[in-house]
Recover the amino acids of this structure.
């Protein structure tokens, strides 16, 4: 039985190629991947693809993760963080990938297709998926405060 989290992935047209590459890599690594689209590289609006990924992750934030890709990663991150239980973060390098999980327990990784090579995005994704939340008291306290803001 596969005990890895389900990965929901989506992009806009500028992130389409990277989305396809990452979905392929994740399936090779034996992850269950749910592709929210788009299904072609034609122009689309990023909220249309960020919303289903964020909604899916919000339904079970402990067992589901998301990856959202647009030109900058910013728009996708803005949409995703509107959903309760979602902690989305824009990640640019391996150290940020590690700390985004260890310190901030993000469950949606937002990537900037216009600024990351495909190879860098793959490595960032692998580090992010293989890093656990530290559970340190100061990080738990901060995340609790964030959760209280949403109420």
């Amino acid at each position: 039985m596969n005990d890895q989290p389900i990965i929901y992935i989506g992009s806009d047209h500028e992130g389409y190629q990277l989305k396809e590459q990452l979905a392929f890599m994740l399936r090779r690594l034996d992850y269950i991947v749910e592709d929210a689209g788009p299904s072609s590289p034609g122009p689309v609006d990023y909220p249309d693809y960020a919303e289903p990924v964020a909604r899916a992750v919000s339904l079970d934030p402990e067992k589901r993760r998301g990856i959202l890709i647009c030109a900058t990663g910013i728009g996708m991150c803005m949409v995703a963080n509107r959903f309760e239980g979602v902690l989305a973060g824009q990640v640019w390098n391996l150290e940020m990938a590690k700390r985004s999980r260890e310190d901030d327990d993000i469950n949606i990784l937002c990537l900037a297709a216009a600024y990351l090579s495909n190879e860098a995005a793959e490595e960032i994704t692998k580090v992010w998926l293989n890093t656990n939340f530290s559970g340190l008291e100061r990080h738990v306290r901060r995340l609790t405060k964030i959760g209280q803001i949403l109420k």
Q: What stands out?
A: The helical segments are 16-28, 47-59, 74-80, 94-102, 118-129, 137-149. The chain is about 45% helix and 15% strand. Residues 143 and 149 are 10 Å apart (CA to CA). The beta strands are 6-11, 33-37, 64-70, 88-90, 108-112.
